[in-house]
Amino acid sequence: MHTPLNVETSWPDAIYAQFRRVDIRQVGYVPDAGHSRLIALCRDDPNIADVVLTTEEEGVGLVAGAALGGQRTALLMQSSGVGNCVNMFSLLRNCGFGCVVLVTMRGEFGEFNQWQVPMGAITEEVLRLCGFLTYRAESADAVDEIVGAGCDMAFNGNLQVAILLSQRLIGPKQWTR
Amino acid sequence: MLKRRDFVRHLLIDRGNLLVVPGLGSATYDVAAAGDHPLNFYLWGAMGGTAMIGLGLALARPDRRVAVLTGDGDMLMGLGSLATIGVKQPGNLVIVVLDNARYGETGMQPSATAAGIDFVAMALACRFKSARAISRIEEAADTRKLLHEGAGPILVNARIGCDDVPRVLPLRDGHAIKQRFIDALNTA
Question: Per the structure, how many domains does chain B have?
Fold first, then answer.
C-alpha cells in the first residue's frame, strides 16, 4: 500500500530515491546534522558504498576514481566544506567528471553562530567560480524535482552540479544549552 | 636508495590488467617513462587527491587491482585519506609512495619525511593490512607481487634517491586521459 509521505520531513527520502533512480553507487560525506537521515539511508543500502571523509576535498578524488571505474557518486557536505574543495574541484573540470554535490547551508537564515557566516555567505558564488551549476531548494516540496533535474544534468552531460539546501529548509541549528 | 625510474619500470613489468593512478609531477613522468598505457590515469594536478582517486576506482572495480604511485609531497597533502581508506578496507588497493623526502618539482626543498615522518607507521595506524619500507632494487619484485596479489589496503614506502631525471611527458588533456582509460577498462 502506498503511504503518503509527509513532505515537510521526508525530503531526505526524496533525495535518496533520486540516488537510486540514477544509480548512484558511492556517496562521500563529512557528516552534517542536516544530512543525517540521508547518510543513514545510504549507509543502510548495500548497493551504495558510503565513504566517510576526513575532509570534503577527499570526496572530489572519490568522484573521479569512481567515474573511471564506471560508477556515479554524490557528495554530501555542509557549506563550510565547499571552501575546503576549491583547488580539488579543478579535477572535475579538467577531465569532465559528472558530479552532484548536496550542500546543507549554514550561515544564512536564522544562523546562531556568526563563525559560520563568512563561508556560508559566499558558498554559492564559490561553487559558480569553480564551474558548478547551482540550484537552491528553499522548501521541502521542491527538493525532489531539483535533485532529480540536477542528477540528470550532471550525469547525462558530465557536468558539475551543486544543490544548495537552504537553512530555512533544514531549520536553523538549535542551541539549547 | 632506489633509482626511481628503474624501480617504477620494475613494478610495471607485465602489468596485465593493473589500473595505475600516478600522482602529479615526477610520479606521472616515471609511469610514462615505463611505457605509456591507456590504463594509466595520469595526474597533472589534484595534489593530495591521488590516493582517493585510487579508493574510488578500487571500490567501483573490486574485480581489478589498483596501484597508486605517488610522491611523498602528494601523500603528505592527503594524509587524511589514509584513514578514509582504512575505514573502507579495499582489498585491491596498493599505494606505493616514491619517497625522496623532497619537493622535486619546486627545487628539492625538504619534505616532512626528511625529518623522519613515517608513512608506514601511519598506514598501520590507519588499519592498512600491511605496510613496509623498502630501499633496494632487490625488493622491487616483491613489491610488484603485492600490486597484483597482496591483500589490501597496502602501503609501500619506497625510499628513492634525489637524482634529477629527464621529464617524460605523457598526455596532458584531462578529458582525453579519462576517456582513454574508461574505453580501455570497458574493453579489457
Answer: 1
Helices and strands per DSSP (H, E), number in chain A: 9, 6
Closest CA to A95 of B15, B85, B177: B177
Q: What is the tens place of the pLDDT at every residue in B10-55?
A: 999 999 999 999 999 999 999 999 999 999 999 999 999 999 999 9
Chain B residues whose CB is inside 8 A of the A62 CB are 52-53, 55-56
Q: What is the pTM of this model?
A: 0.96
Cross-chain CB nearest to B52 (options A52, A65, A87) = A65
**Residue B68 corresponds to which cell in the numbers above?**
597508486
**Domain at B51, CATH number:** 3.40.50.970
Residue numbers of the domain that contains B159? 4-187
Nearest CB to A62 within list B41, B55, B177? B55
Domains of chain A: 11-169 (3.40.50.970)
CA B25, B30, B36, B40 torsion-angle sign: negative
Alpha carbon distance B185, B154 (integer Å): 23
Put simply, whether B78 touches A (Cβ < 8 Å) is: yes
